[in-house]
Amino acid sequence: MIQKAILETTPFSEKLNSSLTKKSISVLQVNLGYRCNLACSHCHVEASPRRTEELSPEVCEQIVKIIEQFPQIKIVDLTGGAPEMLFGFKPIVEAARKAQKQVIVRSNLTIYFEEGFEDIPEYCAQNKVRVIASLPCYLPDNVDKMRGKGVYNTSVLALQWLNRLGYGENPNLILDLVYNPPVPSSDNFSLTPNQISLEKDYKDFLKEHFNIQFNELLTITNLPIGRTKIHLQARQIYQPYLEFLEAHFNPDTVEYLMCKNELSIDYLGNIYDCDFNQMEKLPARTRTGEILTIAKLLEAKTLDIIEEIQTAPYCYGCTAGSGSSCGGSLL
Ligand code: SF4
Ligand code: SF4
Known about the structure:
By secondary structure, the protein is of the alpha/beta class. It contains 13 helices and eight strands. An eight-stranded mixed β-sheet has the order 6-5-4-3-2-1-7-8. The longest helix is centred in the middle third of the chain and has 16 residues, at 195-210. Bound molecules: iron/sulfur cluster (SF4) (2 copies). One iron/sulfur cluster binds at residues 257-259, 273-274, 276-277, 309, 311, 314-315, 318.
């Protein structure tokens, strides 16, 4: 199936007419590991409660050093799995806040109700962590279908909890929601809806029914990797989905791709151009082809040693229509 995709889809680098180059690094996205209390149907990480991979104390220490030593890093973005339940979460939050970085945690919200993690909302508020929370739809059925029974109701309770702490209202306590479309089940594909109009729908519905407020909605396209890819392949629509994404390639998105100014670090300390490449095990490389680790960056005393970003057919997911990134629509 992979070979077929490569044969039938224009290689992404050819489509660009030039290589995709890195800018100066300002965002560090750390994937703390693949364990999660949920196991969502669209998860590109294929995270679940059964996964055991997580950061070691040694890699955690190296990440803290990078945060302390490079003022050019403006944002530290923590993801997983469920980052709050993985080793390194609090030490990295505290090191990054001390170094005056913006800290983002990508939260599934339900973790606040798991034993041992009930302090997380207050902890995030105290440390002014920006919470980017998954809520793939404002209606219950779609959320429970993608994420598991009861997840919508728990997410509503979590959002109300965050609101009580000032999230969504206090300008220092930012609460954003993430929309993921359902994974396609036929070849009747569509692009991710317009972010601005969908945000209005979310805001109106959540305010009216649950008195919930939040800052922004981020719409993210499902890239054909991880569980999404398995799902598409099972329905024999993996290749058509790639072709659909390529057909909607929008060159205006390229300048804003998140991989241009970020480093993605895995739980072992390996470096990638983005979290998607991390999951597909496509490592970042220096101009001499060397694979990088966080230890090598510390030794080199620079973060700017990657020239060309590694690309793959799934990059069409980031450049289709208005574009997509961990920060939502690109245009
Ligand atoms: S999508 Fe997020 S919440 Fe769902 S299994 Fe993956 S990491 Fe966990
Ligand atoms: S998947 Fe998206 S973010 Fe990652 S390298 Fe491709 S275009 Fe860049």
